[in-house]
Design brief:
Number of strands: 9
Strand content: 15-25%
Strand order of the largest sheet: 4-3-9-5-7
Structural class: alpha/beta
Bound molecules: FE2/S2 (inorganic) cluster
Number of domains: 3
Oligomer: single chain
CATH topology of the largest domain: Ubiquitin-like (UB roll)
Order of helices and strands: HHHHHEHEHHEEHEEHEEE
Number of helices: 10
Radius of gyration: 21 Å
Shape: flat
Helix content: 25-40%
């Protein structure tokens, strides 16, 4: 589109049925930034509308005596437990400030709620712009990875992080398609490697904070440079963060399913 001005963005939003999108997201869609598209934005708006109409007006939310404490802004583990117990047959979606999420997760564990029905999200402030120039960003991330490797060597952990000496064979299942490569550089993170091959793997923060890039290991092993979102149960289930994963074995097979 022509210059990104408010009137132009408004016309763009009207033409593509994107009213309601924030100005920054609208500008990202309009200028075709990596990770943004008209179709994705329309699906997001439809989902948001469904949440407002179906979830936030549901009687579980608006007519539930257990949620009376919501408006006071203070919850205890006991209150959360009382709220959750009648709904153990449903999936749990946990999001909010970290201490609150931790409390809810602890209660769910106490109730032996199945991990596969617990879904979590974290909101964080990023140190960099995840939608910046891709090459600059990858170069910066490589430098950080190198620095972290050096640090590991300094504190005697080199043996722990030593990965394959040469290129790694990688098999990836994504959106019903299989991709096979035999030249994954062990110093390049999985997400970056796939991008360099033209594979559109999912991501959001690129900093190990959100899990949008989550993969499941089917064969081999990877190590993550940073992980602030997966817990021990996730790791035991083979879940890893594609944006932070470096190979540790000569063959790695993963799925995004
Ligand atoms: S993209 Fe957010 S953790 Fe990988």
């Amino acid at each position: 589109m022509s210059a990104v001005t408010t009137p132009n963005l408004n016309r763009f939003a009207a033409r593509h049925h994107l009213a309601g999108l924030s100005p920054s997201s609208l500008a990202a869609v309009a200028t075709d930034q990596h990770g943004y598209s008209i179709d994705k934005a329309q699906r997001f708006l439809a989902f948001q509308s469904r949440i407002k109409q179906e979830l936030l007006r549901h009687r579980v939310i608006i007519a539930n005596p257990y949620t009376a404490w919501f408006r006071h802004g203070v919850q205890s583990g006991e209150q959360i437990k009382a709220f959750i117990e009648p709904y153990l047959a449903y999936d749990a979606f946990v999001c909010g400030p970290a201490p609150y999420m931790k409390m809810v997760t602890t209660v769910l564990r106490e109730l032996e709620f199945p991990r596969e029905r617990r879904h979590q999200e974290k909101f964080v402030s990023l140190g960099g712009n995840p939608f910046g120039d891709i090459e600059e960003m990858q170069e910066a991330e490589r430098e950080i990875a190198d620095a972290e490797s050096d640090d590991a060597g300094d504190d005697g952990a080199a043996a722990e992080v030593a990965g394959p000496a040469g290129p790694v064979k990688l098999e990836v299942e994504l959106d019903g398609s299989d991709h096979t490569f035999d030249d994954w550089d062990p110093k390049v993170k999985l997400l970056e490697f796939l991008e360099s091959k033209g594979v559109k793997a999912p991501y959001s923060c690129r900093e190990g904070e959100c899990s949008a890039c989550a993969i499941r290991l089917l064969e081999g092993e990877v190590r993550m440079l940073h992980n602030d979102v997966l817990d021990e149960e996730d790791l035991a289930d083979g879940i890893r963060l594609g944006c932070q994963s470096l190979p540790m074995t000569d063959n790695v097979r993963v799925t995004y399913s």
